[in-house]
Specification:
2 domains; three-stranded antiparallel beta sheet
């Protein structure tokens, strides 16, 4: 039987003597929820865990793309597309994209995520040349003005190569490095950090009929397998972000189950990225069918994720999120 361990995360400067640091950050835990397929969860003392299970939960995360991983970081979304689900067309023009990047940098973003292919449900694939033409010039223009970390959001090695040449510093693959076999070796050759995300199906079909045996454990197993493959291909674990892929081949209930269990993913030994901003389930649960007004719900989800130790939030509303995170940090007793 395989057991999975989700730390029951707490915060505060007053803590018991057996408190253990979560991923080397300010949050801590004394107990874990032990999960196994077909068995009821149990809460057990963290000290009862074998060393090989406990070590990934407590070990500090190394800085990644210039960002410290012992504090929250904000990734601003910059879609250079006409059809993204929330902001399609807003930054499709290169001038508008550069203005959007400047605004996110001024608002305090730690990294920008540049994408030239929509991954909304039902979206069709964009030709490689077009995706490069959308993204590489914008990345070069941002890099000419700023040293901010830049992520290229792509499944394709040729797009990633052009982006890295233009000044990108991280590759974010929503396909979990399963779409293009040349992408992981490219990242290893360039010694760049990567983000590996879970998705069930591709954007064109992923919401047709998503199903899982146990969504939390299934997503964990997928990410664990993909991370091991990337490590074997020459990308150190310290340069890998893990993203459970909220909204990618998942129903509302699947998304909520992942959000409740986010702390489980610390067991991967990698920093965690959460991209839930303006997703459909936020509108469904929050009562707004429109994408753009979902900032309050997105921030609520983001703060809940930070309370479970997530290190990086991928968001549309950088300024509002930054304000919320600063207040969340100020109100904590540590």
């Amino acid at each position: 039987m395989t057991f999975y361990y989700r730390p029951l995360v707490q915060h505060g400067s007053a803590r018991p003597g057996d408190a253990l640091p979560l991923a080397g950050g300010p949050l801590w835990f004394t107990h874990v929820e032990a999960l196994a397929r077909g068995h009821a969860p149990q809460v057990i003392p963290a000290d009862d865990l074998p060393d090989h299970d406990l070590a990934p939960l407590t070990a500090p995360r190394a800085p990644l793309a210039g960002m410290a991983m012992d504090r929250p970081n904000i990734m601003g979304i910059l879609n250079i597309t006409p059809d993204s689900f929330s902001d399609g067309g807003k930054h499709h023009d290169a001038g508008a994209a550069l203005a959007g990047a400047r605004a996110m940098i001024a608002a305090g973003a730690d990294i920008l995520d540049i994408g030239g292919e929509s991954t909304r449900p039902g979206a069709l694939e964009v030709p490689v040349d077009e995706e490069i033409a959308r993204t590489a010039p914008v990345i070069a223009a941002i890099r000419a003005e700023s040293a901010i970390a830049i992520s290229i959001d792509t499944r394709k090695s040729a797009v990633a190569a052009a982006a890295l040449d233009a000044g990108a510093t991280l590759v974010n693959d929503v396909a979990g490095f399963t779409y293009d076999a040349a992408l992981a070796p490219l990242c290893a050759e360039h010694s760049v950090p990567v983000c590996v995300m879970h998705a069930q199906g591709d954007p064109a079909t992923m919401q047709d009929d998503p199903h899982y045996g146990d969504v939390l454990l299934d997503v964990y197993d997928f990410l664990a397998t993909r991370i091991a493959t990337l490590v074997a291909q020459g990308i150190p674990r310290a340069r890998i972000l893990a993203d459970p892929g909220i909204g990618f081949g998942k129903t509302r209930d699947h998304n909520l189950a992942l959000l409740r269990g986010l702390a489980l993913f610390h067991g991967l030994g990698c920093p965690i990225l959460l991209g839930a901003s303006r997703k459909r389930f936020i509108g469904t649960s929050g009562g707004d069918p429109r994408a753009a007004p979902r900032a309050p719900g997105s921030i609520a989800v983001g703060l809940a994720a930070l309370a479970q130790g997530v290190q990086l939030l991928r968001v549309h509303d950088v300024r509002d999120t930054m304000q919320a995170v600063r207040l969340w940090q100020a109100a904590r007793d540590n």
